[in-house]
Amino acid sequence: AKRAGRDCARFFLRAMNQALDERLDIEAALRHALSNGLLQLHFQPKLRLSDRQLVGVEALLRWHDAQRGWVPPDRFIPVAEESGLINALDAWVLDQACAQLAAWRAQAVNVPGMSVNVSPQRFHQDDVAAHARALLARHGLAARDLTLEVTERLMLDDNSRPREQLQQLNEMGVGVSVDDFGTGYSSLSYLKRLPVTELKLDKSFVRDLAHDADDRALSSAVIGIGKALGLTVVAEGVETEGQRDILLQLGCEVAQGWLFGKPMGAEALVAWMTPTRR
Ligand code: C2E
Ligand code: CA
Ligand code: CA
Ligand code: CA
């Protein structure tokens, strides 16, 4: 029994070491990618459901690694968060996203708004509000052109540093969106205390809308909360017409998903915006 226990411990340690090695590998490769221009942004359209008008795009980070191929954000963002690299990464994304929006405007391409994901960590270590203000000024953008997507984790943080930045962003007129709304915590009181402008109905609620009465009830509740508080509710992960129809019925105004457009490079988005008429 003692021997089996030792083997088990050895096996466990080896598995842990492998996981750690992989994390360190990814971190090093990601650091290299960031400083050598190997990261890109893709942009996913956000549409008003009533008339399919484009209301903005969400910037999503894309990484193609020579050895690994395309690495999905769900694999490298957690590594970046643990290693602290996320601050530099998110700062780069914000900068690139603002530059891209300004470039589109310069070409008379009317992308009405840009949404950027910001990890909670960044609000603890950097001054996101000051960075956003500087970027908007540098690129000649208006505050209402920009929305920052943050998770509920940040909203429930008692630390004053993030809270002050959210206040400042709100005073400037930058949008604050609660990403993955409803998946993390049950407390809603922060919606009263913090200057939120948008709720994103998580795609886990949208997926089974057509078949699952509970998901319909939850989606309806989220949309109701949003409306009652004067917030925009954006449904994520809309893949089918059935889902879209139900969301419309439930009073949801804006949606994102493969039904309308996948995340795409800057040029592809312009092509998507100018369909050939026939
Ligand atoms: P998220 O912010 O919730 O982004 C939505 C995710 O849903 C994206 O995954 C998007 O590609 C995917 N998606 C969009 N439409 C559909 C659909 O119709 N069906 C399905 N099944 N999925 C859809 P992606 O691009 O893989 O990003 C995953 C997560 O990584 C994001 O979730 C976000 O939390 C994080 N992330 C991405 N870019 C950044 C970034 O620049 N900074 C930070 N901090 N996080 C990022
Ligand atoms: Ca997001
Ligand atoms: Ca989300
Ligand atoms: Ca997510």
Automatic annotation (TrEMBL):
Residues covered by the EAL domain: 23-277
Top-rank taxon, per record: Bacteria
Protein name, entry field: Bifunctional diguanylate cyclase/phosphodiesterase
Source species taxonomy: Bacteria, Pseudomonadati, Pseudomonadota, Betaproteobacteria, Burkholderiales
